[in-house]
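F.,

This is the one I mentioned.
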């Protein structure tokens, strides 16, 4: 029985074996018991109760007894396996039964139950038939339910697919897809902004820590300079050159290892195998490498990775850090792709350090494709080809040509490009990947030709065969390396003499060969590149002295910091403007915005009303509740802008002003002003103040009365001048002007003069005429003009009447203001019922008072809140611009800036090259 249990354990994955062995267990147990029982009966002369005929029956082909009970056992086992899924329960029972059989025979026999339990467990007759039918029906019903569910799922899938086939559904799908893409773009932008803020905070934190240490030591000392490794110094030079000369047109001919190959050929896996860490994201057939990734390998005590523009180190021995590193690489790649592009030229620079790593600099490029998918940009294929040629065109670049060994060599696209850039193969190393698959698919002689350089016309310095994985995403580098070593030890290709040489296999041999070649080329070319940069620096310095002899060469960063300081100084000057100047500017701006409303909607309608004071109260209250607070806030904001721009204009006129900052300053101010908005609660506060002020209807003293009269006269004169100007344009020049300037009237101007002459008659007849003409008056004017031969319509007369009456009304208002100048005491004695109507003076006094309290509130708001908020927004804009190199290049431009930038970069690179050469010579 133990043997049967072990068989179940070995073959528990096979359903038929389990069923058969379960039946064997039941039969074996029964045979063991009843054989012993019958033997006792025969020895004792007793009866066998009819059971002996079953246990003495013939045995099966494997020696197992086949009693009738076996059929019942097999049925029970099948039911338990198919319907109730209890195969492991049977397994546990079988093992438990095997352990039980190890007991002593006598104890086991005494514990046996009566034979009647067999009839209860396996009933015969109709009960067993009903039980079997019920189980069979239950199993079939379960099977039907499963089939129905599968059918429904398939039907739903089919209906969904069919529904998407029509145009409307396709449009909806495309719209949803576009929304998803937009959301992804927004998420990337938010992540970019978050990362910039994080990097900014880290930078500020480092500066604060450094300042703290300096203050703590109470002396001015710089931080100790950490000695960098040779490969790190070289990598920094390459990073500087990437930004300086991206077209290799001048001096960027320094060596680097360029990893090229067809898409999914395994080039990223080769790089990971050399770096001894799975640092790149993975995808099933999807293009994952969307931008060049420069990986600097260096030996170190810990296996870590770090991006060039970040201080964070990723522990490559921790799976959590590896996952975060891969996500960060994928995020940077997707962030570099803008404007609907699929690939980008922006280089992602990172450093990987660890024990046993070969020192070198590798650049992983997007894989070359032959066919584009619908989700790729139209120029993806050409962009990848141009990018690959761009990197391989460096005459000192080492080309690591990756060929997929599991596909036909004739399908490769990369070999032709390599032959174009390096026809003699002086800097090409050929790598055949997926050799484990190639061994099963390809002819050994064909592999021998590939690795001996006889299959392609392409030539190379060396040919290598590697295995970089088993097709499993979760395999570690250690597992892959072990698999690679085991494969080449047991490979038929490796053991066949002359097919593959030992030094041509494994990623370890490949990395050592590439590193040796890399440093050999570095030593051969570094002096030449340093001399080239030295000559370039001399030429640029000569050009600067000839063009800008009195100026120091300042780059964009330095110029930006200087402009930033000047802008912040002007913000400080904004807070130093005196209160009187603020109130004068606010009052002027506020009345300029309110004057038209006061005259058109309050003063003129109230003057034409029988109850002037009541109408004024109603109009002023409506004005204060609706538009006055918002107009006041708008005036305050415009005054703040005007004053700030005046300070900037004043700074421009100073002798020390530099025009190179003008575009930047204007852009910063415009952006800050665009973002700035006045606090909402200011409107509610002003509404309360203005309503309370307008409730006062009595002028308190003679001084205020005189100020109100002066305010009325000034305002009326301004409106009168505007009206005179309008009439002058309508009527044409006067007789003296026509004579002296040789001008004449137009036909329309002549008509206007005739119409105005008739309208003046009406106003002379009735000086208190209403602002509108009656129908009879319009008819009379038109008939009088017809007698003079002038044909005009009613609308033409009304258009001429409006400025004519306006001038008449304003002249009367000016006379009333003159008469009311000395009527204050009559006003105080009789109140508003004065013999001389001075209600318009009171109206303008009330308006003057509300302007005064509004300007005072706005001034306090500007000084205490808005100027500080504007200062904060300007600083935020400056911080954003400081991180945006494109924006700085756009706003700080010109020959002076470009020449200074180039000179600074060349000088910096040349100094780094000399430092690297000194360290390289010391290492020798």
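My design for it:
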């Amino acid at each position: 029985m133990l043997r049967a249990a072990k068989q179940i354990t070995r073959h528990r994955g096979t359903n038929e074996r389990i069923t058969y062995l379960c039946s064997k267990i039941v039969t074996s147990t029964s045979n063991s018991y009843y054989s012993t029982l019958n033997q006792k009966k025969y020895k004792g002369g007793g009866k066998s109760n009819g059971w002996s005929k079953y246990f003495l029956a013939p045995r099966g082909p494997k020696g197992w007894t086949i009693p009738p009970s076996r059929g019942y056992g097999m049925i029970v086992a099948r039911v338990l396996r198919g319907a109730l899924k209890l195969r492991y329960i049977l397994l546990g029972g079988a093992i438990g039964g095997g352990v039980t059989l190890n007991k002593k025979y006598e104890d086991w026999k005494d514990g046996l139950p009566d034979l009647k339990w067999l009839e209860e467990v396996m009933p015969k007759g109709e009960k067993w038939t009903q039980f079997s039918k019920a189980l069979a029906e239950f199993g079939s019903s379960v099977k039907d339910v499963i089939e129905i569910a599968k059918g429904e799922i398939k039907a739903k899938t089919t209906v969904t697919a069919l529904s998407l086939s029509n145009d409307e559904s396709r449009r909806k799908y495309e719209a949803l897809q576009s929304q998803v893409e937009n959301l992804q773009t927004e998420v990337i932008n938010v992540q970019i902004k978050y990362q910039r803020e994080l990097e900014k905070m880290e930078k500020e934190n480092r500066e604060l820590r450094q300042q703290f240490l300096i203050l703590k030591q109470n002396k001015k000392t710089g931080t100790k300079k950490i000695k960098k490794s040779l490969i790190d110094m070289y990598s920094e030079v390459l990073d500087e050159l990437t930004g300086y000369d991206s077209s290799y047109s001048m001096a960027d001919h320094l060596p680097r290892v360029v990893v090229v190959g067809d898409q999914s050929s395994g080039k990223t896996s080769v790089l990971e195998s050399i770096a001894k860490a799975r640092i790149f994201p993975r995808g099933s057939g999807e293009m994952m490498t969307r931008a060049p990734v420069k990986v600097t390998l260096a030996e170190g005590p810990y296996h870590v990775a770090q991006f060039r523009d970040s201080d964070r180190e990723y522990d490559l021995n921790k799976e959590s850090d590896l996952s975060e590193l891969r996500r960060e690489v994928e995020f940077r790649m997707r962030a570099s792709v803008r404007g609907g592009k699929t690939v980008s030229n922006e280089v992602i620079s990172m450093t990987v350090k660890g024990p046993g790593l070969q020192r070198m600099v590798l650049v992983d490029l997007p894989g070359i494709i032959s066919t584009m998918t619908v989700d790729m940009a139209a120029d993806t294929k050409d962009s990848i080809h141009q990018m690959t040629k761009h990197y391989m065109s460096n005459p000192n670049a080492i080309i690591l040509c990756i060929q997929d060994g599991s596909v036909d060599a004739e399908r490769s696209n990369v070999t032709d490009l390599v032959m174009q850039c390096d026809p003699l193969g002086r800097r090409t190393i050929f790598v055949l990947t997926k050799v484990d698959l190639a061994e099963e698919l390809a002819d050994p002689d064909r592999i021998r030709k590939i690795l001996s350089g006889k299959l392609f016309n392409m030539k190379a310095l060396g040919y290598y065969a590697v295995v970089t994985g088993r097709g499993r995403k979760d395999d570690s580098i250690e597992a892959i390396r072990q698999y690679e070593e085991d494969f080449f030890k047991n490979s038929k290709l490796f053991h066949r003499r002359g097919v593959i040489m030992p030094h041509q296999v494994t990623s370890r041999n490949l990395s050592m060969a590439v590193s040796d070649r890399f440093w050999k080329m570095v030593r051969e070319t570094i002096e030449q590149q340093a001399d080239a940069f030295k000559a370039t620096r001399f030429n640029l310095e000569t050009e600067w002295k000839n063009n800008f002899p009195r100026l120091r060469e300042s780059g964009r960063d330095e110029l930006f910091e200087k402009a930033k300081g000047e802008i912040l100084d002007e913000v400080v000057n904004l807070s130093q403007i005196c209160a009187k100047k603020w109130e004068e500017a606010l009052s002027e701006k506020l009345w300029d915005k309110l004057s038209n409303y006061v005259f058109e909607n309050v003063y003129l309608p109230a003057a034409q009303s029988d109850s002037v004071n009541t109408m004024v109260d109603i109009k002023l209250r409506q004005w204060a509740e609706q538009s006055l607070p918002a107009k006041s806030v708008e005036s305050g904001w415009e005054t703040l802008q005007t004053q700030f721009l005046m300070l900037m204009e004043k700074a421009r006129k100073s002798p020390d002003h530099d025009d190179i900052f003008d575009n930047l300053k204007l852009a910063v101010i415009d952006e800050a002003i665009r973002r700035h908005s006045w606090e909402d609660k200011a409107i509610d506060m002003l509404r309360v103040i203005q309503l309370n002020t307008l409730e006062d209807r009595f002028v308190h003293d003679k001084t205020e009365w005189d100020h109100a009269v002066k305010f009325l006269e000034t305002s009326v004169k301004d409106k009168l001048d505007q009206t005179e100007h309008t009439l002058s344009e309508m009527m044409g020049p006067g007789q003296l002007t026509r004579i002296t300037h040789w001008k004449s009237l137009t036909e329309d101007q002549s008509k206007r003069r005739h119409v105005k002459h008739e309208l003046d008659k009406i106003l002379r007849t009735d000086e208190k005429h209403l602002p509108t003409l009656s129908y009879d008056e319009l008819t009379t004017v038109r008939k009088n003009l017809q007698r003079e031969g002038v044909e005009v319509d009613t609308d033409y007369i009304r258009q001429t009447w409006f400025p004519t009456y306006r001038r008449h009304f304003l002249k009367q208002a000016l006379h009333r203001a003159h008469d009311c100048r000395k009527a204050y005491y009559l006003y105080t004695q009789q109140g508003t019922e004065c013999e001389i109507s001075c209600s318009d003076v009171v109206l303008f006094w009330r308006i003057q008072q509300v302007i005064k309290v509004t300007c005072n509130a706005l001034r306090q708001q500007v000084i205490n809140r808005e100027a500080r908020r504007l200062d904060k927004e300007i600083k935020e804009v400056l911080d954003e611009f400081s991180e945006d190199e494109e924006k700085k290049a756009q706003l700080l431009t010109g020959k002076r800036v470009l020449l200074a930038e180039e000179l600074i970069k060349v000088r910096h690179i040349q100094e780094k090259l000399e430092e690297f050469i000194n360290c390289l010579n010391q290492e020798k």
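The first helix runs from residue 2 to 10.

Talk soon.
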